[in-house]
Predict the structure.
Amino acid sequence: MSANLELTPPSPSAEVEEPIIELHNISLIYPNGTRALNRVDLAIRRGEFVFLVGQTGSGKSSLMKLIYRENDPTMGLVYVEGQEISDMRRSQIPYLRRRVGVIFQDFRLLGHKTVFENVAYALQVTGASRSVIPRKVMKALTLVNLREKADRLPNQLSGGEQQRVAIARALINDPIILLADEPTGNLDPDSSWDIMQILSKVNARGTTILIATHNQQMVDVMQKRVIVMQRGEIVQDMQRGMYFTTEMRRDSLTLGGSSL
Amino acid sequence: MKREPQSGVLEIPQNLEPVPLDPQTPQKPAPSDSTSKVGSSQPNPESRPPKRAPAPPLEEDQPAPEAVLRPLGAADFTETPLSLRAPASPKATKLEELYEDDLPPLKKRRGPSGGYYLECFLREVLTNIRHNPMMSVASISTVLVLALILGFFILVIANLDSLAKELAGEMHIKVYMDSSFDPQKASAFKTSAYAIGHVAQVNFVPKDQAFARLRQRLNAKLDLSDLEGNPLPDAFEIPVDSPDFLEPVAHKLAQLPHVATVDYGREEAQKLLRLNQIIHWVGLVILAMLLASTLLIISNTIRLTVFARRKEIDIMQLVGAADWFIRWPFILEGVSQGMIGAALAATLIDVSYRIVVPQIYKSITFLPILQPNEILPQLNIGLIALGCLVGALGSLISVNRYLKA
């Protein structure tokens, strides 16, 4: 079913550039027997902005976890920047995660650290020098418009602000890929659009972005590549896609819509 | 949470087109250059190709087929600040600047020193303690109580041990002379006794003196006045170098002339020696058990504190913290808690021992209690070292459990 091959539109750079994320025939079965992913093939090129949609339990999060090596595939190969990561040594994983930023629905900030410290932590981890940290952190916070709130604790911020801190933290090491697992799931529409706007900016800088979301409107408006998952399989992959519910897809198919 | 879709939406992607093509804005070299040293030897995944150039999202070039796909009647997002015209908008330009002046990533930097990390870790420890003081109090008081018990037990064992040694050292041979012994020849007997060897001293106790001693010991409890004469024989008290020589020396003394009986407390001596050994072994076993349970209890306490922070550990791993970077603050925290708890215990034991010992001396003078300075310094150092060790081990074990998970 995977349609990734036909997807790639002919373009001068297409032959030269290898996909930044590549999944080869991935199956993932959890220890309890749940089949989370079933023979998934996927290629995402550098600089793409991709939505991953599908019902809860369709395998979106599982797929993302493969990319930052939270999950190991039961079968198949995962490449990030051409490097096979599923046989990566444990000690190497932190380095992968500095290149792959991740944000979550529940923000995952360190509760007892200030906004500044939260973002700085991701830098300290790399051994960044003391003189660089404040400068870079403040820049990242400026990017997400939180400069003035650097000294607040996460629980003093709104959900949207917390998510922006998480984005700043995810970006601080200049990742090549930013994964967002339901980034707007807990947010009101305004904050959600703020987040999307920031992610678009980030994408404009060249960072590849992969967002798992239920937010239909967002997907429809953004007009980006949309990958639809269902029961652990990729059932649709559209270059300029819309969010389809199951029924809607049937309609659109009969209408001869853009679904590939 | 849905908004009403409205027209104008579809312009956004078109405006986006020029966004990614900023090849002239020099891509910022990975700032991780500097950090790559952390990883040192390993083939560093951070040394990524410099071409982090933004591949223009190619799909933008395609003719938009979305006209068909506008079932929602184009969203009304004019109010939403979806300013996606990145390069054109002032905001985006600012953004570019923002990252551009990061370009010279300082000079080539040496890898961060141990001091750098130590500072990071100590700050981390302080924040943690400040953030969750009750957890620290729990760990510290656990160590405190266990160290108190352990210290008290060690003091008791050490004193029993020294008591046994002392008693064994006091053992001596008593030689009772027959009635034909002439006290004038006592010095001759002494010379021959010394000749046997391993004899520390030879003390002559004339029968009058022995009788006086007996009378004194019995005090007024028993009336000796109706006793005719002195029934006690002349005697010699002969301490030897070591309890081990009691028997052979006693045998040789028995061969000397005028000797009636030789008493070297054979059974008592052996009992004492055995007692000494029992105290030693039982003490060691109990000590080992106490140590094991201390370690267990403390590592359990620490495991609880770590458990409370497993989410934190998760997050740290997510942002790319290496295991050791996560582990060290926990270890330092464990060490400091162990040290504080043990130091408090040591202080308490030290002070109370110094108060109690003179009191015991006052009431039971002959009890050979160890002097505070004979034992306390070693005990204090030992307890504190143990506290640190246990704290470190406890955290190490618990953190590792969550790191592997």
Q: What stands out?
A: The two ends of chain B are 37 Å apart (CA to CA). Residues 1-109 of chain B have pLDDT under 50 and may be disordered. DSSP finds twelve helices and four strands in chain B. Chain B has three domains: 1-16+42-102, 117-166+274-404, 172-264.
